[in-house]
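User
New here, help please:
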Amino acid sequence: MIKLVSSDIDSTLIDNVHPICERNIQAISYLKEKNVTFVLCTGKSYAISKDFCKKVRADFGIFGNGSHCVDLTTNKDIFKNSLSVNSLVKCLELAKEYGIHIHANTDTGIISEKLEYLDLRNSLLFPGKIEITEASDIYNTLINGNTEILQLVLSSVDDLSEFKAKLQQVESISITHIRKKGKYRDNIIDKDYEYLDISTSNVSKGNAVSTLSSYLNIPKEQILAIGDNINDISMFNVAGIGVAVGNSYDEVKEAADFVTENSAGNGGFAESIYNFI
């Protein structure tokens, strides 16, 4: 019996164009009726996601790809893992050397040298809802600004594989590599690009779900994880059932126990819920 559902948001619970569909809203109500704990697990920060979390009545939120977990009924942190100054310095120096675009996620919003990639996307999707700071001297702003940095996001239109290999020499960080190119193109800003999501070591959606489930005393076998992107695969590894919605990346479909016929916009989330709960 499933006791906890952990779901990604973008392209899983909602698509890139439309608000959450009615089928998915009804499925969330069904979870409430069944007393199943509903967790949103996203790469976005709490600052960006909290209004949506409230709208869909989630019980817990995991943000920043697993760097931050909040009890949404009390607004209290379960855990939070920020990047160390040493890790920030090394990552920023490498980004500067390679000419890579930099933005960072904090508790309250986004710090960017220029809104151009994922930072631009989020500013367009959530106008007026997040604090955006544009800093021409991004290095000094992030290092000397006395602000907790939960995620560093490094983006480029070019292949980031070589740059990622360099970053992997930096101690105490986790790296998630996302490609929004070709059929996965970012249609919100009409651009192909790649980005590396940098968090402190051992941060992942999977580790965060595992930590939360232990906190709630819910075993792996009673967890249903739903996602679409590469960063969701780690959730599948700590869940009894991993579901990829129909529009998922091919690698995610291969890693899942089940793939829905429906995409995010057509109720792939709801299909997952009604199939397994």
